[in-house]
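Notes on consecutive records. When two proteins share a document, each keeps its own sequence and its own token line. Never mix them. Below: protein one.
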Amino acid sequence: MFNVLSIDAEEEEQLFKEFEKKLNVREKKNKHKTKLESCRIPYQNSRQFFNTSFDASSIKILSYNILCQAYAKYANFPHCEKNVLNFDCRNELLSREILFYQSLQKNYPFHFLCFQELDYYPTFYKNHFSQLLHMDSIYAQRTNGKLDGCGIFFDASQYKLIEKQVLEFNQLEKELSKETIQLPFPLKTFLTDNVALFACFEQMETKQIVFVANVHLYWNPEFSLIKLYQSKLLVKELNQFIDQCTILQDKGKSWPILLCGDFNSKPDEAHINPVYDYMTNEAGFTSCYAKLCGKESGFTNFVPHFQGCIDYIFCKHVSDISNVLPIPTLEEVKKENGGLPNSSFPSDHISLVAHVHL
């Protein structure tokens, strides 16, 4: 049985003061200053880490669809109070949330943060998280002028970036045009502008190699076939990236892989959307949450018209999964107008965190 790490009221107040100090520089520069108290996250007992051991082979990784600001409009989220959709308020919440989870395990900071729907990367988030968390980063913007993309932030004091690669899923349209298969919709439908980001890292102390990938698949539930094709291309291109990585001496070895993302696919709909089934069976990936909890989370995306588990931290060729961050309770996500985002959660998705041992 795991023992849950918890904090009392005095520790909570101390954490809040630490957040104030770290975020004070950002607030002073903010022309549209928000009241920090109105953006203060509740430190829910439901989102406490379990006690776990760490060593040089341990990785603490987060996956989070943070909701692109271009989509955070009242027209898309009419159940929300308008101030909840304000960028500055949402950023304060996001920063506090990550700092809070990090503070629960003060000696074990995040090694990797994988964000989907990450916008304002070159103008804001790149420097913001570099200053706040002392992390370097890489980024893949969606194609055809889309404003968001996938980003991987990493602890450069422990991990050295060796190689990286961007996968643009629009290439499916060109590849499928060469085949004779019959599709139920035009080929141009595959031009979704989604991307994935692959990276090879070396742990500086142990020289252990680990591959980290971040992806956001197409959202539309009417086109599950597109998501399946994207998943298959994702696995094929990731395997090729690993095979061609120049630092690897033993080409036949199975290297640890951490794959984060918003797959826009639920685990219990194989008959209409087989992406999860493909990833966990044919592709051979293990879901960290399903492995440790016995099943997937009830939801990772929660709005009044949709609730479901569509975000995952997958892994492959690792020795152990020792910990995950529990999801919030239904009461917490529904307490304001029946869904996310709200004054406690900055996105319509929730964050996932896993501790993996290589």
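Protein two starts on the next line and is unrelated to protein one.
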Amino acid sequence: MTDLLVGIGGIGRWFLDPAHWQGAAGVPTRVAEHVLLSVLALLLAGAIGLPVGIGVGHTGRGANLAVNVANLGRALPTLAVMGIVLPITAALDSQLGFKVYPALIALVVLGIPPILVNAYAGVAGVDRDIVEAGHGMGMRARQLLGLVEIPLALPVIVAGIRSAAAQILATATLAAIFGGPGLGRYLVEGYAQLGSWSARPRSAPSRLGSPGAESTRRATRSWSGYRRRPAPEYTTRAEVRIAVTAWS
């Protein structure tokens, strides 16, 4: 019990120490590094997963292959991916290739599956009657995709992006294992001191990563309001025409 109280007191003193809130190793800098790494990984994952998922959902070609490859990506441990790509990236760049690129690539691999699968499921799940009504109106494939299928699939697509963002933000602490940036540095440096209670305050900021990611996911979902807006059901060509006019 005494050790517990000492540890809690140490955490409080650590956060109240002005020295921990300035400089290259300060909390604001580490938070900025963590967010920048996570956002960059999310953007790259979206740039890969969204076009593939939307394209496969629209055409129906290669659906099984794309989904299976995405699910395979879910099964790959992030730390294992970092270890696999490390020799290659380190050979290309002795600094960033050792500290940043392995974590970035692993986080991109982590973020692609939920984005790709949700994009595919959202577009493929659009009512075929609506698609046929669009064809009957003379809409081309690109117009149909941009004005009908993607707007109706948007709630599912956004849900996939939210899920990927939460996973990436919570997992980015692994970058510190190879000396990379982010809040994980506090965790690694804290446990490097034999895991004593006096050292555990250093790991406190990184422990906020997972709750912070979940809070961000919930806030984004509440702000977007998509969960309260089910996809509309159009049954006639006139309703499709009105919807297309509204989206355009």
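For the record: The radius of gyration is 23 Å.
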